[in-house]
């Protein structure tokens, strides 16, 4: 019986020391990440301490896939992470909900939604370009108008003599 108690006590000490040794690999602190992981996940650096273990593992999984992505996919991921940290908790919950809904769609419906989204993105880009071109044209007109020479002070507009205006 005494040997059993000593064995249990030793096991408890080992378990306690393992627990107190620090955070587990499932819930790492930022400084426990590799330099590459920190570089990839830099946009969410400030959020990292508040993430639970499940979310951290999700981001670490994304970081592992990052090196296999094309440069354009990597840029897109970095942009999305920057956008994500600017969302409110409610917006994040909404995004997660919409993702779950999308994930449950049939493959055909997913393709349709993707095509519609891409078309919407193209239309927005075209409208944005058109608006930008219109602003540039307006700015050019305004610049040209302000650069036009002032009317000659010796001349007066036709019909102004009837108003009693004469050049001085």
Description:
With 168 residues, the protein is mostly helical. Among the domains are: 78 residues, no CATH class; 37 residues. 65% of the residues lie in helices and 0% in strands. The protein is elongated. The termini are far apart.
Overall spatial form? elongated
Query: How would you state the average pLDDT, rounded?
Result: 81
Characterize the largest beta sheet: strand count, sense, and whether it forms a barrel.
none
What is the count of β-strands?
0
Report the end-to-end length measured between terminal Cα atoms. 122 Å
Radius of gyration: 33 Å
Count of helix runs: 6
Label the structural class. Answer: mainly alpha
SSE order in H/E notation? HHHHHH
Low-pLDDT ranges:
4-23
Strand content: under 5%
Helix content: 55-70%
How are the SSEs placed, and which strands pair?
Elements: H1 2-20, H2 35-40, H3 53-66, H4 71-85, H5 89-103, H6 107-147
Short description:
Helix content is 65%, strand content 0%. The chain has 168 residues and is an all-alpha fold.
Defining key terms:
6 helices, elongated, 168 residues, mainly alpha, single chain
């Amino acid at each position: 019986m005494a040997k059993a108690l000593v064995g249990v006590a030793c096991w408890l000490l080992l378990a306690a020391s393992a627990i107190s040794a620090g955070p587990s690999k499932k819930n790492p602190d930022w400084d426990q990440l590799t330099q590459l992981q920190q570089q990839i996940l830099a946009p969410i650096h400030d959020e990292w301490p508040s993430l639970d273990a499940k979310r951290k593992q999700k981001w670490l999984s994304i970081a592992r896939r990052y090196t296999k992505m094309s440069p354009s996919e990597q840029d897109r991921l970095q942009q999305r992470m920057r956008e994500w940290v600017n969302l409110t908790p409610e917006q994040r919950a909404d995004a997660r909900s919409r993702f779950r809904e999308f994930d449950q769609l049939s493959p055909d419906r997913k393709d349709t939604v993707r095509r519609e989204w891409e078309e919407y993105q193209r239309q927005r880009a075209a409208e944005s370009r058109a608006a930008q071109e219109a602003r540039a044209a307006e700015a050019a007109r305004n610049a040209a108008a302000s650069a036009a020479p002032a009317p000659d002070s010796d001349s007066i507009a036709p019909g102004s003599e009837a108003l009693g205006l004469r050049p001085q």
